[in-house]
Amino acid sequence: MSRADIVSDETSAIPVEDDGEVASAKADDGDKAAPASGAASRTIPETEGASGSASAGAGTSGEVTAAEPGEPAPDSSETEAEADSETEPEAAEPARARPAWRRLPALLLAAAVLLTGAGVWFTLEARAAAANPAAANLALTDVGATADVTSAVTIAMNQIFSYSYDRTDVTEKAAAAVLRGAAKDSYDKLFAEVRQKAPEQKLVLTSRVSAIAVQELRNGHARLLVFLDQSAVRADNNATDSAAAQLSVTAEHTGGQWVVTTLEPR
Questions:
Q1: Which terminal CB of the chain, N or C, has fewer other CB atoms within 10 Å?
Q2: Which of 234, 239, 177, 175 is nearest to 204 (CA)?
Q3: Is residue 93 assigned to a domain?
Q4: pLDDT tens digits for range 182-220
Q5: Three-class secondary structure of residue 235 per DSSP
Q6: 117 and 14, same structural domain?
């Protein structure tokens, strides 16, 4: 074998040896890198989990940021609890009812306004009623005064329009006690004829008020409408007759009593 062949054999053998060493070195390096790769693979999911938790917390509260590398990731349940504790009072505040004592001044003010309005309305109504002429007529409102004048005029009419031919003086005295003014003048003229004819005819007249109404009553002045039922008997022949009369009567309250001032047949 020549030297050239030996050299070529050595040269071709060197790469093989080097390749083996390189391959073994690579194998050794691969064995050393594998644990590092595993560690890296184990670290990446943990970091991703922490990042996911941090992003979830940030989405909930708006203030939590991602954890720095090497720092422990915040607990997602604690982050959510803190977010809930911050948002719950804000959500509950609009639904909170105002205490009753805070609403009391407003209620009192509304009641005061209502009572004031009612008082003004009643005052105006009272003034309007007082200004109304019909309201001033006590015959519509004063039952006691109406009954008083009704009773006085009824008794007066029964007395002055009832007489007996043999006791005309009794009727004249009754008329003198309850008649005044124009009523007395007109009655005296009428009764003068009665005094003359009654004894001749032996006439007995009985009058009774069948209905009476007070049309107006104010300031001691009254206007009344009176209906009379009259029956006449002649003592000489027992002849009877009946009639009805209607009178407009004016009465005045004077001297503590009601007196008739006007008598008008209707």
A1: N
A2: 234
A3: no
A4: 999 999 999 999 988 889 889 999 999 999 999 999 999
A5: coil
A6: no
Q: In Å, what is the CA distance from 42 to each residue of 45, 48, 53, 75, 213? A: 6, 10, 17, 20, 119
Which strand (E) or helix (H) includes residue 162? none
Task: Tell me, yes or no, whether 97 lies in a domain.
Answer: no
Read out DSSP for 56-108? HHHHHHS---PPPTTSPPPPHHHHHHHHHHHHHHHHHTTTPPPPHHHHHHHHH
Q: What is the mean pLDDT of residues 141-164?
A: 95
90, 110 Cβ separation under 8 angstroms: no
Burial of 139 (0-12, 13-18, 19+ CB in 10 A): buried
CA-based R_g, the chain, Å: 64
9 and 82 inside one domain: yes
* The model scores a pTM over 0.70: no
Say yes or no: 241 and 195 in one domain.
yes
246 and 196 within one domain: yes
| Residues 234 and 201: beta-carbon distance below 8 Å | yes
Measured N-to-C along each axis, helices 181-201 and 168-178 cross at an angle, to the nearest 10 degrees, of 170
Total of domains in the chain: 3
Mean pLDDT (the chain, rounded): 72
Same domain assignment for residues 151 and 251: yes
CA geometry: angle 133, 138, 140, nearest 5 deg: 85
**77 and 1 belong to one structural domain:** yes
The amino acid that residue 258 corresponds to is W
Is 182 part of any domain? yes
Looking at the DSSP bridge assignments, the partners of residue 250 are 223, 262
198 domain residue, yes or no:
yes
| pLDDT at residue 157 is higher than 80 | yes
Domain with 222 in it: 143-265
